[in-house]
Each structure stands twice: as C-alpha cells, then as structure tokens.
Amino acid sequence: MVRGVLWVLAAILLGGIVHLSTVLAMPEAAKQDAYSRLAQLTPVNAMAPLAATKAGAEIMPFMDPAFAAAVCRYDLSNGPLKLIAPVSQAYTSVTFYTRRSVAFYAINDRAAGRRTIELDLMTAAQHAQVPEDEEVTAADRLIIESPTTMGLIVLRALAPEPGLMPQAQAALAASSCKVQTEPTPAKR
C-alpha cells in the first residue's frame, strides 16, 4: 500500500516537472510569435498600420476590434529611436515589447498629459552616452531604456463607436517612429 502511494506521488511529481518545463519552453520554441508574424508585414524603424481585426484572422492574439492599431518593429543597433504619436479623441496607448514579446513599458494619453506622446527609445549603453544638461528636466523629455536592441512598439487608438474608426486610424497614421539623426539632447 505504501509502495503504491509512493509510486503515485513520484508520477505526479514527474508529471508536474514535465508540465512546468513544457510551459516555460514554449515561448522559445514558438516559430510564429508576434515579432515573426509582423516581420513579414512591417518595415524596421517605421510605423505601419495594422489591418482591421476580423474574427479568426487576427495578426496578433487578443486584438480588440474597437481599437485601431499600428506597429513599429525597432532595431536600436543604428542609434536611438524617436517616437511621436498624436493622441486620438478617445484613448491612445503605447506599449513596448522585447523581441520575445515581453512588455517592458507602457504609457497612455492620460499619463502623457499632452496632445502628443513623444519619447526616445534607446539601450542602456546609448542612454549612458547622452550628455547631462541641467536645463532639461524629466518633464521635458521621456527616455525609455530597452532591455534588447530589437522589439515592437504597439500603438492603439480607441474608436468608441464604429463611425469613429477613421479618426482613430488617422491619429495613428500621423505617428512616426524613426532613428534619431540629430544629436541627442541632454538626459533627464
């Protein structure tokens, strides 16, 4: 009897280890993650609008049809990136993801407090090279440090009614994501 219970416990323990290992390995083993799917549709370091969401044909999982979406696949190996996104009438959000789909920063229009979300994305090494300037405050300039050189920036604009979708799409079409060519102002 005791021997049978030990075998059952050993089997449950082994099953738990196999299950946990499989769950943790899946993101690395997945061939069609969001970055890979978007690589076929979007250029690097440029904003690209995503097509309207249709049931069963989403480009990325869990896309809400009430939101217009645009994506910037970034590569920081050529320098820091400047993101400028005008806010829509209802709600706008910007989310930053690493190459492996790990979200590392998000901001929305209410947190930005302005009519335009404007920020600089760079690696920690690039941020360390930015000169200090006491006249520029953190409120003047938002610098986001990316943990990786490649990743995704996803912009979403809410269309509270279907008739307002063109306005949300226009707000995203006016956004830009490009490598900075001018010298970087002082860090915060």
Give the SSE map.
Elements: H1 2-29, H2 34-39, E1 47-49, E2 67-75, E3 81-86, E4 92-98, E5 103-108, H3 109-112, E6 116-123, H4 124-128, E7 143-146, E8 150-158, H5 165-173, E9 176-179
Parallel strand pairs: 6-7
Antiparallel strand pairs: 1-2, 2-8, 3-6, 3-9, 4-5, 4-8
List keywords for this structure.
2 domains, Immunoglobulin-like, five-stranded antiparallel sheet, 188 residues, alpha+beta
Descriptive report:
With 188 residues, the chain is an alpha+beta fold. It folds into two domains: 1-29; 34-179, Immunoglobulin-like (Sandwich), CATH 2.60.40. The chain is 28% helix and 30% strand. It is built from five helices and nine strands. It has helices spanning 2-29, 34-39, 109-112, 124-128, 165-173; strands at 47-49, 67-75, 81-86, 92-98, 103-108, 116-123, 143-146, 150-158, 176-179. The strands form two sheets. It has a five-stranded antiparallel β-sheet with strand order 1-2-8-4-5. A hairpin with a 4-residue loop joins strand 4 and strand 5. The longest helix is centred in the N-terminal third of the chain and has 28 residues, at 2-29. It is globular. The model has no long low-confidence stretch (mean pLDDT 84).
